[in-house]
């Protein structure tokens, strides 16, 4: 590998970009490993020069319509799955945060949920709606979780398990789509309030 020249590397990456068998993200990830090797291990100054890397097109996130949100109870038969989706949508939490929610994180007196292991390991608090609280109480009586709010067969639920539940129940809607829908709804409410005040 050490004898490989810059033109060979350029040709290699260019072929990955044009053969149609590699996604831009995969090519970009594959770009940095050899670059690190040639710059930091083999100390090849030319490796710092330009190598073709793909530009990843940014697409707008999927946001569910009000009709799709309201259809969820009738579409999802499993009450636990329905509660998971409702929790993600109502609190705007990521799946990784959702599966780490403990029973002790639900503060019904202050009507909030304490996110202990949030994004970038940051703690935060989110509002707990009366409807979600009522649903969680029913869920608790039915499933009797011991430590984590959403437990699987071996204890804490998994990111993959929640994703599968969401896809199975809502077809095209992934968990992150519920978060996007939550954010969009919040922004819409803020805009309506601003317009009303003005």
TrEMBL record:
Pfam family, one: Phage_integrase
UniProt keyword annotations, A-Z: DNA recombination
Signal peptide stretch: none
GO biological process annotation, one example: DNA recombination
SUPFAM superfamilies with a match to the protein in the record: DNA breaking-rejoining enzymes
InterPro entries xref list: DNA_brk_join_enz, Integrase-like_cat_sf, Integrase_catalytic
GO molecular function annotation: DNA binding
Entry annotated with the keyword Magnesium: no
Domain Tyr recombinase residues, every copy: 59-198
Protein name stated in the entry: Tyr recombinase domain-containing protein
Organism: marine sediment metagenome
């Amino acid at each position: 590998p050490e004898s490989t020249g810059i033109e060979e590397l350029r040709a290699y990456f260019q072929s990955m970009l044009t053969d149609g068998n590699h996604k831009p993200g995969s090519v970009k990830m594959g770009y940095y490993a050899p670059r690190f090797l040639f710059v930091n291990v083999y100390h090849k100054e030319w490796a710092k020069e330009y190598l073709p890397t793909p530009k990843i097109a940014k697409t707008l996130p999927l946001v569910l319509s009000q009709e799709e949100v309201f259809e969820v109870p009738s579409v999802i038969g499993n009450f636990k799955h329905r509660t998971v989706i409702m929790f993600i949508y109502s609190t705007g939490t990521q799946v990784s945060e959702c599966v780490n929610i403990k029973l002790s994180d639900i503060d019904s007196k202050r009507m909030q949920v304490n996110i202990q292991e949030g994004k970038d390991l940051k703690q935060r608090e989110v509002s707990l709606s009366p409807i979600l609280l009522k649903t969680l109480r029913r869920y608790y009586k039915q499933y009797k979780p011991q430590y984590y709010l959403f437990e699987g067969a071996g204890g804490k639920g998994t990111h993959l398990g929640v994703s599968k539940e969401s896809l199975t129940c809502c077809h095209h809607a992934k968990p992150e789509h519920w978060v996007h829908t939550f954010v969009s709804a919040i922004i819409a409410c803020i805009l309506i309030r601003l317009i009303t005040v003005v």
